[in-house]
Structures
1.
Amino acid sequence: MRLDKFLKVSRIIKRRSVAKEIADQGRITVNGNSAKSSSNVSVNDQLIIKFGNKTETIKILQIIETTKKDEAEHMYEIVDESYKEDFRKGSR
């Protein structure tokens, strides 16, 4: 399945156009390699997604073409989640 479609179907990112934009900006890696929106993903692949100040590492557990909201959370597992510190907050 295409990376952008997986991100939308799994509801990690709500819109496919946003998933495509993030991937094409180089903010997603698949198994350590920079990925484009058209990259194929498979079960057991590991994604690292950079959202602004948050970085998530996700393992793909299953690929389903269409899902309901409650089924989507079974498609992946969050392996790690980290946040960059905002240095501006402490400078007041």
2.
Amino acid sequence: MSELLPHPATGDLFPSPVPPGTGWPGDPAAPETPVAGTAAAVRRLARTPDLAELDARVSVCRACPRLVRWREDVARSKRASFAAEPYWGRPTPGWGAQRPRVLVVGLAPAANGANRTGRIFTGDRSGDWLFASLHRVGLARTATSVHAADGQELVDTRMVATVRCAPPQNKPTVAERDTCAPWIEAELALVVESVRVVVALGSFGWDAALRSFAGLGWEAERPRPRFGHGVEATLAGAGREVRLLGCYHPSQQNTFTGRLTEDMLDDVLGRAAAAARIP
């Protein structure tokens, strides 16, 4: 049994990484939640009509050995500044509205961000930028997201990662991306009826959005739209259209160098809010 450490918000004690069903804030899984250990099992277990059950199954997936080792090694070794905290150390499920009008698609959890807090884009500088902007344009209740018990709420918005485990150097392999793909496609299928706008963070999120919609039988413009900041494309299916917006990822590399500014991020997310008719 690993050492028990206090959650920074609740003070409850948890091992690191955290087993399912032990009371971690926002943990969707129970001890009996089925665990995918192979790509075939991911495809099978992704077939559920219930979003909460899908989140639970995502959160215990063990189908990619390299990613499992990495996320759990990070959860045990920890960054020095978080050494006194337990780490989630599991896949990060989607989070936000169950009937979102805006869907934000990212790459993967950060090793010391969502892999620590258990909530997507929470606890790292990329998340700091993203949530501050979401708040400014009316898509988040508060400007910060620090842990899964901080009371933050998204407004008619949901966030998902293309790959659900933190990868080394933030670079999943093609095989890992493909193994994880049924999770995002299944999640999209469960929420797409309400979605009006998709914001793709970076080329990885852009490609994942196009692939996932194509998997549901939707069609993009021809020729295939190419990613760029502020680029807009139209996805058609189910008798209607969804707007796809490209946005540079709020990574430290992009924000520190000025490639992505607050105004640029606010512009894309503000366009998403307006297109989704969110006050």
